[in-house]
Amino acid sequence: MSIKRNAIANYVGQIYITLAGILVVPLYIHQLGMEIYGLIGFFSILLTWLQLLDVGISTTLLREAARYRADREQNPWFPSLFATLGKFFLISSAVLVVMGWFASPYVASHWLHAKTIPHQDLVIAVGIMVLTAAIRWRIGPYRSVIVGYEHQVWLNALNLVVITLRTFGAVFVIRFASNPVIFFFCWQLLISVGEAFFCIRKSYQLVPKQDRHTKTDNLKGVLKPFLRFAVGAAFSSAIWTFISQIDRLVLSKTLPLATYGSFTVVATAATGIVMLSSPIMQAIVPRMTGMRTKNDGGEQETLKLYRWTTQAVSIFMAPLSLTIAFYPTQLIWAWTQNPQIGEQMSLVMTLYALGSGIQAIVGLLYNLQYVNGNLSLHMKGFTLFAIILIPLNIFAAIHYGALGTGIVWVAQNIFYLVVWSWIVHRKFAPTIHMQWLTRDVLLIWGVSACVAFLTLSIPFEWNDNRWLNLLFLGLIGFVNLAICCLLHSKVGDYLKNVTFRRLNLRGER
What is d(CA 160, CA 395) in angstroms, rounded to the nearest whole number? Predict the structure, then answer.
């Protein structure tokens, strides 16, 4: 499978998913109101926190599927392992649904501060949320196998259909619904069932029945190293979820549901920034894992690809994050046409945009450890960070609201970039750290910041035409992106080669 084709497919799919999630926000706010939109924001938080129950299995399955595809002789036990874990997820999903239904009345009564949504509707909506989240959690391992086999074009085609139905289809449904709260979440449940069917079917095609039913003589011995790595991945995922999502969870408890709806607009933008970095990582990680499995030259190839990936992520993240950070009020108004959200959340938007852009770069440090099959450093480091950051985020959320959590978010990601990257590289890539930090990250971000700052002097009059305002912001971001693209090593090498060829041709003449 081609990395370029998978990366393009991933970016097309992710850009569409992100744009759909962004474009549907004003439609949701207009048709549902801020309080119900806040409930949708709580649903997003629920989906994120339920990933903790994955216990690292999906992440580890992706790695093992990539290794099995690269060399089946070294990993002949993968199909039977996949079949065993499928049964585990089926049972776990059933238990999760039962527990969630019993917890729904408590969540509706004591956690969410709704003023206009009827209490019974709120209880039913939370119950449907739990069922939908359980199904979407159940899909995780199967999606990982599809990614590990590098069938990412197929997966992105499915994503396009699912996201279209999940977002714009929901807008159509609630427009004619007598009870928009219940109908919205029932629609999400229906789409999730269809998505699960196609993902499970595809993964079973990739791992044939006869291979899955082949018995492994020492399944216990096979499970032991797998579970050891899975526990490490699960612990790392849990710690990272607590650190990065505790602010949103606490704010959902402390803020009125309508105000939390305003914060959800900021959270959607911040999540979109990070999501736009995932396609290239999704395409690169299986290939890096396969490279690292090789004995001859695998390490050098992996580090070269790692640096190119860092540059690519920086080139996409810097223009996007900085454009949002420099123009938060204008963007929020053009996006939602709700001036109150801009007044409440403009500075918060700036902080979360910058922090999320940096966080996308920091995520590569985890991938470097992941492809090396050693997460012990990540576990130790983020255990220490969690002891400090979880109480700090809770304190900031309770006493200073979204502004306080935004400041903590930026500060912690700057720390990861400057200090944590040095610690990780010292162990896994000791020869590249300074070049990685200065050439691959800071240079690109510095140039992008200069371009964004210069655009402030453009005499553009912001007006009531939201599309004209969005067009201007899009042009600013596109020009910034085009300039940053020139800083990628492969682009630079290509331009040098073209220049030298022309100079040689002129010399021969």
Answer: 39
pTM above 0.85, yes or no: no
Question: Per residue in 73-95, is it b (16+ CB within 10 Å) or e — as a string?
Answer: eebebbbbbbbebbeebeebbee
Per-residue pLDDT of the chain (509 residues; tens, 9 = 90+): 555 666 666 667 777 877 787 778 888 888 788 888 888 888 887 777 776 665 566 666 776 777 677 666 666 667 767 776 767 777 777 777 777 777 778 777 777 777 778 888 888 888 888 888 888 877 877 887 887 777 777 887 888 898 889 888 888 888 877 788 888 888 989 998 898 888 888 888 877 666 555 555 555 555 555 556 556 556 666 677 777 778 888 888 788 877 888 888 887 777 777 777 766 666 666 666 666 655 555 577 778 888 888 888 899 899 999 999 999 988 888 888 777 787 788 899 999 999 999 988 988 888 888 777 777 788 788 888 888 888 998 999 888 888 999 999 999 999 999 999 999 998 888 888 899 999 989 999 999 999 999 998 888 877 777 788 888 888 999 999 999 988 887 776 666 666 666 656 555 55
Q: If DSSP codes are grouped into helix, strand and coil, which group holds residue 434?
A: helix
Q: Report which secondary-structure segment, H or E, holds 315.
A: helix 298-326
Beta carbons of 50 and 133 less than 8 angstroms apart: yes
Classify burial at 507, counting beta carbons within 10 Å of its beta carbon; exposed 0-12, middle 13-18, buried 19 or more: exposed
Three-state DSSP state, 373: coil
Q: How many residues does the chain have?
A: 509
134 is written with which tokens? Answer: 């359980």
Distance CA 280, CA 286 (A): 11
Q: Which of 153, 163, 43 is nearest to 108 (CA)?
A: 43
Note every long-range contact of 426-434, with CB atoms under 8 Å and residues 24 or more positions apart, other chains counting.
427/377, 428/368, 428/369, 428/372, 428/374, 429/303, 429/306, 429/368, 432/303, 432/307
d(CA 24, CA 121): 23
Tokens of residue 375, six digits:
């997460």
